[in-house]
Amino acid sequence: MAHLIFLFVILINNIFFIECQNQITNIKPSPINFGDYITIYGSGFDKEDFVLSFSNERGKYLFQGVDMVDSNTILINQENWNIEQFCGDGQISYSPVLGESSFYPVTFAYPFVQFLHYNAISGLITINGTFTTKYPIYLRNYTFVDPLEPSSASSEQLIFKDYPRIVSGSASLQIDKTEYILPKRVYTNYLATDLVFIPIKRESDIVVVEGKYLTYDKHGVPQYSIGIVKDDELPKVYSCRNIVSTFLGNQSYRVTCEKDIYGKSIRWLFNHLFNGFSMSTVIPYIPPTIISVSSTFFNEPAVVTISGFSLCPSPNITIGNSSCQVTSSDDWKKGKLYCMFQSDVALVDNQPLTVNVSCDDNSIANIITFGTADIFLYSQDECYIGVNNLVCSGNGTCTSNKKCQCNNGYSGSDCSIVSTVPPPPPIIDNTTAIIETTESKFQIGIVQIREMDIYNKVFKSYNLTDKYQRWELVSNENRYQYVYGTTLKNGAEINVQMSINNNSESSQQHDFLGDIITILPNSIKYQIEITKWKSNSSLNQIQLIFQTDISSSVNQDCGENLINSEKKVQMLGDTIRSVELTLVNGQTLVGTFSSRMHVDGRVVQSQTKILSDEDSIGIPSVSKKNKEHNQASFTSVTFNSFNEKVIIDPNFGVLLKDYQISKCNKFANWKIAVIIVCGVVGLALIILVSLLVYSRFKNNSKIISIRLKMKNFTK
């Protein structure tokens, strides 16, 4: 029995040996990339009379450049191949003339591409052919930031979803280490489309075009040229220099370049270098935009200065439908035009006149562009009368241009402010300005914004000093300028810019829409911008509320007399012009308010008032701690519902008075907080302008003198 088993094993071994004598046991490398030497390992290879081939779904192909090293090793050199035959997944077979063939599976990374199509509607790139899917596949292009993987892949078809930056030039397939240049471009009907020439400022050297497939190569070089021509200088073409293409997404690009010419009939010449596509169109200009206009006196002809942008050298200007003859346009590129206005159009209900600037520099398209602004106001026809009912408060002279020229030691638009000692700078704490002495402290800031309905009831309000209302320091360029921002629960945004006038000795005159406001030494200037406010009704009004909080920790021997006060209110029409709050120790709080605002591009009359105790209920304080003696005064600036933005431009300052007061004041030089609220102004009006309200009659200021005893608030 043992002999039979032994014989069976011998027979089996002999059979195994006979079947495997020409067997392929391994092929390297795997996968096989373009240019690789292929090594076939096995046994029993016969150097004479054999065929070595590769077969796949497409057919069977014989190898060239075969080198039989020995009976166990075969080398294949790819140099003389038709490489498109050896692609995808298949098998290599060794077939001797006598004996059985041996097969071994292999993968060629090299693809065979039979068909390529790009569907611009579906955004799909389809490539048919023969491919291996066992290894990563990528579509590459000159402008790909990252390689693109197929959304669907089989051995016969690859589908790629349109990559945002597949734009121009030849693309390639990369499978493993093999990169195959596709036989035709990805975009067979490639064309720049949807070109939009963005309107530009006339003074700008930068021109802009947006559109799809405004391509650039892998080095960032645009695939097109842009020229500029003037119709009266044809055929001369000016080059648009420094072309920069920026990808916007969804095959769209923004292109900018620099021009050196201006003219009434300037055209773009767009030429795509890749496919010959070209077009020409007129460069559009932004309509003239008016930021500010200087004032004149009614019935006194004078030159008016118009400030803005996208102005033109030969404009037609009217003010209140009355012609304003251009006297000079040399500075139009700097945003200035000058014209002679007869000042012969009267205001109606003190509403500003409409200024119109028109340009015909798009005449080739029969377009006349114009810009308008309801912004012109006449200068006040007399100097301000102080609270003592004297012109310039009796402390200055009225000049020919109806401005008070104050005597030494006095300042302010009506020369009512005594200034003898330089004040210290204020302290900035978040959006609050703090003025502090040994025994007293002034805290000034914005505390609330609220919407009022037609019945003057609070519809909604937001406390700006609430600990949950977070203010972020947006920027702090230097120790004289701070910008804070916050977002309300209703989505509205408020930005507060605080700038310190660091001149410790001299006052400055701030010309706000023609209203001269004194900016005190070491004053704090606020600029408050409100945007994205959605009113419940267009009939509702919004109030921004400021507070001055005065606290004292003086000796109880002084009792409450320290904050007894006398309040004087000067009215200009139905709005507050100024407020003087004088404490019994001679310390005075002065507030001066502009008579006008600028809301959504319109100049309107201001509405400023001191809130009563009843109206002040529920308004928080800027003060973070209770003092032994505390008094708060709230002032509101009210404006109608708006669409775009409102910017309020108040100023807060201090003065020192150089005289002795009661023994309760342990210091001789006391600080006087002065609030100057310039009203609501558009952001573009950072540049000071010169506009004054015209009044046909003399300014009959209403003086109200009220003796008040302010409430004490104790701990």
TrEMBL record:
<keyword id="KW-0472">Membrane</keyword>
<feature type="disulfide bond">
    <location>
        <begin position="406"/>
        <end position="415"/>
    </location>
</feature>
<dbReference type="InterPro" id="IPR000742">
    <property type="entry name" value="EGF"/>
</dbReference>
<keyword id="KW-1133">Transmembrane helix</keyword>
<keyword id="KW-1015">Disulfide bond</keyword>
<keyword id="KW-0732">Signal</keyword>
<protein>
    <recommendedName>
        <fullName>EGF-like domain-containing protein</fullName>
    </recommendedName>
</protein>
<feature type="signal peptide">
    <location>
        <begin position="1"/>
        <end position="20"/>
    </location>
</feature>
<keyword id="KW-0812">Transmembrane</keyword>
<keyword id="KW-0245">EGF-like domain</keyword>
<feature type="transmembrane region" description="Helical">
    <location>
        <begin position="670"/>
        <end position="694"/>
    </location>
</feature>
<feature type="domain" description="EGF-like">
    <location>
        <begin position="379"/>
        <end position="416"/>
    </location>
</feature>
<dbReference type="Pfam" id="PF23106">
    <property type="entry name" value="EGF_Teneurin"/>
</dbReference>
